[in-house]
TrEMBL record:
Protein name, entry field: Fructoselysine-6-P-deglycase FrlB-like protein
Organism of derivation: Frisingicoccus caecimuris
Superkingdom of the source species: Bacteria
GO biological process, one term: UDP-N-acetylglucosamine metabolic process
Span of domain SIS: 6-157
Alphabetized GO MF terms: carbohydrate derivative binding; glutamine-fructose-6-phosphate transaminase (isomerizing) activity
Length: 322
């Protein structure tokens, strides 16, 4: 399956798409956010909205209808809220595309277009949800209007595989041990980021650290940092900044400049220092998150080794009623 053929199929069904709704939960929602950001920034025709699945059901946009495309992701294939959201899209006569890692699961249904993706180490970016969703957005843009950065994005998706592989080695060598040791000294940390990369700021907090490491933390938008949260900045407080390489970088730089002089515990993961300089500036915003996710995984793994906390440990998820 490829994004171009999927969009062709959608266009055959609906002729014109005017709204795209990205719907998922947790880490799956994180993967869809950069594509949403790209549509919002690059399209003059299509409105884009992003929803956690339950909210899409409870606060359904009135424009959801025959000219809408609902793109969902359920990694397990059985996320009830996401399956219900897909059913809702169908009931409103929208085109529905569902991504899942599990063939034969409820998400892999003939009711909608199902895209089964692999999962594991060393997969190509084009094969996983972060790359698939960007490709779907790019193909829709190219099919309905002019998308001047189409070639740059597709080339960038290909380049990300080598960038990520090299960055993993460096992050293990340069950042992992320090991050893990700082977690032993600080029971709480703040994570900052901006733009499309804010998806990974959020994901690093709620998935990699809260869910998979039981680490107390909070995520803060680099721009919003100066509209309240910076008042708690002081020595002894741990801050981790995901410094993006695209248009939103000035917000991250401003936060970094302040943090350097107001706390004694700052770590920075700079996308430009870890390979994003070879990506066309026109699409760096959308591809930075592809870099940050595997780096987040390296950092959480390093913490897990120090704390003897496996990433699969759960005390509530799938174990109690909720």
């Amino acid at each position: 399956m490829d994004a171009k053929s999927v969009i062709q199929q959608v266009k055959e069904q609906k002729n014109e798409i005017r709204q795209v709704y990205w719907v998922a939960c947790g880490g799956s929602l994180v993967d869809l956010y950069p594509a949403h950001c790209m549509l919002m920034a690059e399209s003059t025709l299509v409105e884009s909205g992003i929803y956690t699945s339950r909210e899409f059901i409870l606060a359904t946009p009135k424009k959801l209808g025959a000219h809408s495309l609902v793109i969902l992701c359920s990694h397990s294939g059985g996320t009830k809220e996401t399956l219900d959201a897909a059913e809702l899209g169908l009931s409103k006569n929208a085109a529905v595309v569902m991504m899942t890692n599990h063939p034969g699961s409820p998400a892999d249904s003939d009711q909608w277009i199902s895209w089964i993706y692999p999962w594991g180490d060393n997969l190509k970016t084009c094969e996983i949800p972060s790359g698939i969703s960007l490709s779907l957005a790019a193909e829709l843009l190219a099919a309905q209007e002019t998308f001047e950065a189409y070639g740059a994005l597709m080339e960038g998706i290909e380049k990300m595989d080598e960038i990520v592989a090299k960055a993993k080695v460096r992050v293990r060598r340069e950042l992992c041990d320090r991050f893990a040791q700082l977690c032993t000294k600080h029971p709480f940390l703040y994570i900052l980021g901006s733009g499309a990369s804010f998806s990974q700021t959020y994901g690093f907090a709620i998935c990699s650290l809260m869910e998979m490491q039981w680490q107390h933390c909070a995520y803060i938008h680099s721009g919003e940092y100066f509209h309240g949260p910076f008042e708690v900045t002081e020595n002894g407080v741990f801050y981790f900044l995901q410094k993006s390489s695209g248009k939103c970088r000035p917000m991250d730089e401003r936060a970094e400049d302040f943090l350097k002089t107001h706390t004694d515990c700052l770590m920075v993961l700079d996308a430009l220092d870890y390979g994003m300089d070879i990506i066309d500036p026109a699409v760096r915003d959308y591809l930075d998150p592809v870099l940050f996710y595997p780096m987040n995984c390296e950092l959480r793994s390093a913490r897990g080794k120090v704390f003897d906390h496996d990433v699969d440990y759960r005390r509530y998820m799938g174990k109690v009623a909720y």
